[in-house]
Design brief:
The complex is a heterodimer of chains A (332) and B (605).
Chain A lengths: L5 H33 L4 H10 L5 H11 L5 H13 L13 H36 L4 H15 L2 H15 L11 H30 L3 H8 L4 H39 L4 H11 L2 H29 L12 H7 L1
Helix pairs in contact in A: 1-4, 1-12, 2-3, 5-8, 5-10, 6-8, 7-8, 8-10, 9-10, 10-11, 10-12, 11-12
Chain B lengths: L1 H23 L31 H37 L1 H16 L2 H12 L3 H28 L2 H8 L4 H37 L11 H7 L8 H25 L32 E11 L3 E11 L3 E5 L6 H6 L10 E8 L2 E2 L5 H7 L4 E4 L13 H11 L6 H14 L5 H4 L9 H13 L5 E5 L7 H18 L2 E6 L2 H7 L2 E6 L2 E7 H6 L4 H8 L50 E2 L7 E2 L7
Parallel strand pairs in B: 3-8, 3-9, 6-7, 7-8
Antiparallel strand pairs in B: 1-2, 1-4, 4-5, 9-10, 10-12, 11-12
Classes of the chains: A mainly alpha (332), B alpha/beta (605).
């Protein structure tokens, strides 16, 4: 795992990857900016009305339009918007007339906590169930795990939340129904967000791990007396890591998107909640900002998994296959 | 097939309910009757009423209608746009293909829910906006699938012929490329139905999908939210409806995609019943026998190895020869449980005095790697590509209980690598399997097999696929190890030249049975079975005049041991008579030596 050739070789691949990623992120910003062009209603009029507290006069609207620079051509506005967005300046919310940047920064922590916690749930449960699915022979336990995994991915998150609230909070009184005050309130949101992701992950883990465990090196490991735990963790999982890693990336990304629903249900003041509020109020700048952050996070999570995949396989290293120093020394 | 239909049943119910909602629904789903609010299920209202006194059953049915309508619209748009885009990209190829593919890749990598929310956020809720928002991301996978299918077809001679015959591009695309591109897209659509239904319900739940007073499942849940704790009939039916449709769609997609159902090699093996042969009488020489296999049969469940018996004596090398598919490898790996999990092995195998058949996985670990080492044929495939050579050998050393701290284990590892003749073990241990030559990897395998200082080394075709000089070096190594460590060995090979350099005794296998066995020199000089004679004749002798044609055996290799009731070799045998095809010959002791046996009913003819 510490071959000397790796950094140089991987460097080239990582550079390519970085260029690609920047390209996709730029496309995301263009798409996000284009939301303005799709918007119904005049943003200047809406903001002016927010400031005035009632319908604004045409003069007020024109003043706001000039202030926002809405008269410039779309490309110029895109360039300006992008330059500001890079520095964290997303303009003013049409709904509250306050800067969006600090608001998002405030809410980021809540969302990251929720995503982090449910990612732990998703990865731990998904890996455990997936490993069991690959190691178990056909039979009732495996069928139950498979069916359960498929069912939990088919449950609508909002309904699952209701059921949990009904049972755990209202009937049993184990946890509070909503809010975020202390560990007890964290249980339901993380379970609701993490478990469906775990179901999807477990299916991929089971299939790819079974494939990795069907290779001759497993037979050889059994021949030298290795136990199944060692075989699963040293031989199976590393060889199945590619698809598992890339799905883990997608999983973390989808958790980020899932916060949109879960934060609503449990009343967590995070980015997802902000996004829905902005969408409901047609607050275009706020919508753009949160779409950019959530979408960017989603894309980065996906792509980070891809680059990790390159880094863990020794066969993709630069010195793969060429005569190695010891051989030259040995034959000399 | 029946199960697939059963799986799709909720989808069929969903479609029927959606299409026939106006006929099936008992009352108008929007008819408010505040006097009848929050009634539990009754004859009048089979699923009760909601807070406004609206009939829940009717609302569920109309909910199916609206879900179905949106899903159908989104699927129609996505399929049309996706399949046409993908087909054109695949058909045109070149730059157009690259540009379209790039756009499709980006669209696929976008989070669908977020796109839909953002679009509805700027356009406002409503059925039309919902359909636009969902189609905006749903088309991309279809484009990708169609492109892949068409790009695969583009180069086919069939299409070239069509073009030569003067078919216009429109005709080629429309008649010959779109239909095959559509098929895999429809399979994908079976799963997509679930995602779309779920998406519609989620957006409505967030208040951004289908606005009231339409009855929509997600909408029903949010409207009923304050009453869920007291009125269970508001909480369950809409959720169950969504889950059933999504679950059926996921399951159908999984079935249509044909998911892998096989168990892996590594499974929790149930030990099969132990079986000792009643008529097994210990012989005088038994103390000298390292491994004794009696009446071993292996089936899947059709037998590939039948009633095989062999013995390996201390310090001796037993060679098992035969052509590919004769069951050699299965016969030697079966005693150690190194078979496919679906294999059923019966018979008895004793190592020292312990029975090997039917051991639990834990008991096996005390045998494999400690008392027996195995060298496999394909040295690249049996080494884990992601682990270093050192990691492999270290593991074997630890399994054998000879490890200690990391450095101590590594010292044993380096000692083993040196023992098998590999230079600079410290550096080699840090290499990965793909960086070694085939001969070196084979030596590494031998080092791994030796880690437990085993009584018995099993080598399955240890020198196949290596060039002749490397072969000779490896055979010398094995011979040296036998002499220095006084180790017993089983060598499986199809190559008599390999066998004659190493073996003390030989067992010849044909079609899953041993047809001849005995001391090496006796079998080579005085073969009892016509198959052995044929094998020997097929070997070019070093003294032969150049240009001499060596004889080959006519006919095709035999199949399984149970394919014929007579001698399996009879169809290819030069001395076969009619009787050979009727009665199966058994192994008989020949006159030349007490341990020389042959299974030929024509005696020593």
């Amino acid at each position: 795992m510490r071959a000397p050739g790796r950094p140089r070789f991987a460097g080239r691949r990582v550079t390519r990857w970085a260029v690609d990623t920047v390209g996709v992120l730029l496309a995301l910003t263009a798409g996000t900016f284009a939301l303005v062009l799709l918007a119904r209603g005049d943003p200047a009029a809406i903001l002016a009305a927010t400031r005035a507290g009632r319908s604004a006069t045409p003069e007020q609207v024109e003043a706001v339009r000039a202030e926002l620079g809405l008269d410039a051509p779309a490309l110029v506005r895109y360039a300006r918007w992008l330059a500001d967005a890079v520095t964290g300046d997303f303009g003013l919310s049409l709904r509250t007339n306050t800067p969006i940047g600090p608001e998002i920064a405030d809410r980021m922590g809540v969302t990251l906590g929720l995503v982090g916690g449910s990612a732990v749930v998703a990865l731990a449960v998904g890996l455990a169930v997936g490993i069991a699915g690959a190691v178990l022979g056909p039979g009732l336990p495996r069928g139950a795990l498979r069916g359960g995994a498929l069912l939990v991915t088919s449950l609508p998150v909002f309904w699952l939340s209701y059921l949990l609230v009904l049972v755990l909070a209202l009937r049993l009184g184990l946890v509070p129904t909503s809010g975020m005050a202390g560990p007890a309130t964290w249980v339901m949101p993380m379970a609701v967000l993490g478990l469906p992701a775990a179901g999807a992950l477990s299916r991929v883990v089971a299939v790819t791990l079974r494939e990795a465990l069907d290779r001759p090196y497993v037979l050889a490991a059994q021949a030298r007396g290795s136990g199944w735990i060692s075989i699963v963790f040293r031989d199976g999982l590393p060889n199945a890591a590619g698809p598992i890693l890339s799905l883990s990336g997608i999983t973390v990304g989808s958790l980020l998107v899932g916060t949109v629903v879960v934060e609503q249900i449990f009343g967590w003041p995070g980015l997802g909640d902000y996004f829905v509020q902005a969408a409901a109020a047609r607050d275009v700048p706020a919508l753009q900002a949160s779409a950019l952050i959530l979408g960017g996070g989603f894309i980065l999570a996906n792509r980070l998994a891809d680059v990790l995949q390159v880094l863990i396989d020794p066969r993709s290293r630069r010195d793969g296959g060429v005569p190695t120093p010891w051989l030259r020394k040995g034959t000399a | 097939m029946t199960r697939t239909v059963l799986v799709a049943l909720p989808l069929v119910v969903f479609a029927i309910a959606g299409l026939l909602a106006p006929v099936l629904a008992p009352v108008d789903p929007t008819a408010v009757d505040l006097a009848a609010s929050l009634l539990p299920p009754s004859a009048d209202h089979p699923l009760g009423t909601d807070q406004l006194g609206r009939d829940q059953l009717s609302r569920i049915l109309y909910g199916a209608q609206i879900s179905l309508a949106v899903t159908a619209a989104v699927l129609t748009i996505s399929l049309t746009v996706g399949v046409i885009t993908g087909t054109i990209a695949g058909y045109l190829g070149g730059r157009a293909d690259r540009v379209i593919s790039r756009v499709v890749d980006m669209a696929v990598s976008l989070p669908g829910m977020l796109v839909a929310l953002a679009v509805i956020g700027v356009r406002g809720p409503g059925v039309v906006n919902l359909i636009i928002a969902m189609s905006l991301w749903a088309w991309a996978p279809y484009a990708r699938i169609a492109r892949a299918r068409v790009a695969g077809l583009r180069g086919s001679p069939h299409l070239d012929a069509l073009r030569l015959l003067g078919a216009s591009p429109a005709r080629v695309i429309g008649r010959h490329l779109l239909p095959p591109a559509l098929a895999p897209c429809l399979v994908y659509a079976s799963t997509d139905v679930g995602s779309i239904v779920l998406g519609v319900a989620t957006l409505s739940f967030l208040g951004l999908g289908i606005p009231p007073p339409y009855a929509e499942w997600g909408q029903m849940l949010i409207e009923g939210r304050p009453y869920l704790a007291s009125a269970w009939w508001l909480a369950y039916p809409p959720g169950i409806a969504i889950t059933a449709v999504v679950f059926a769609s996921n399951l159908l997609g999984e079935r249509l995609a044909g998911d892998d159902e096989r168990p892996s090699i590594l499974r929790w093996v149930r030990p099969t019943a132990r079986r000792r042969l009643a008529d097994h009488v210990p012989t005088a020489a038994e103390g000298d026998v390292v491994l004794s296999v009696q009446d071993l049969s292996v089936g899947y469940p059709q037998r590939v190895v039948a009633e095989v018996s062999y013995e390996v004596r201390r310090g001796q090398v037993l060679a098992i020869v035969g052509e590919s598919g004769s069951g050699k490898t299965t016969s030697v790996l079966a005693p150690f449980g190194l078979l496919d999990p679906s294999a059923v092995a019966t018979g008895s195998a004793t190592l020292g005095s312990g029975e090997l058949m039917g051991l639990t996985p834990h008991e096996r670990r005390l045998v494999n790697g400690r008392r027996v080492g195995v060298v496999f044929q394909d040295s690249l495939a049996v080494l884990n590509p992601l682990r270093t050579i050192g990691a492999h050998v270290d593991e074997a050393v630890r399994n054998a209980g000879r490890g200690g701290r990391r450095a101590a284990t590594r010292r044993v590892t380096e000692e083993l690598l040196r023992l098998v003749g590999l230079p600079d073990p410290a550096a080699l241990a840090r290499q990965f399997p793909h960086q070694l030559s085939g001969g070196m990897r084979q030596r590494v395998q031998i080092a791994i097999a030796l880690a437990g200082e085993p009584e018995l080394l099993v080598a399955d075709e240890p020198t196949s696929a290596l060039d002749v000089t490397v072969q000779a070096q490896l055979l010398d190594l094995l011979g040296r190890l036998r002499d220095e460590l006084s180790m017993s060995m089983i060598v499986v090979s199809h190559d008599l030249a390999v066998v004659s350099r190493l073996a003390d005794s030989v067992a010849v296998m044909y079609a899953g049975r041993i047809v001849e066995s005995g001391p090496l020199t006796t079998v080579i000089n005085d073969p009892g079975h016509p198959y052995t004679r044929g094998l020997l004749d097929a070997v070019p002798l070093p003294g032969a005049v150049p240009g001499t044609r060596f004889r080959t055996m006519p006919g095709r290799p035999g199949a399984g041991p149970d394919d014929s009731s007579g001698c399996a070799f009879a169809p290819r045998c030069p001395i076969a008579v009619t009787a050979c095809t009727n009665d199966r010959p058994v192994l008989k002791v020949l006159t030349s030596a007490a341990t020389h046996r042959s299974a030929c009913s024509r005696g020593g003819a």
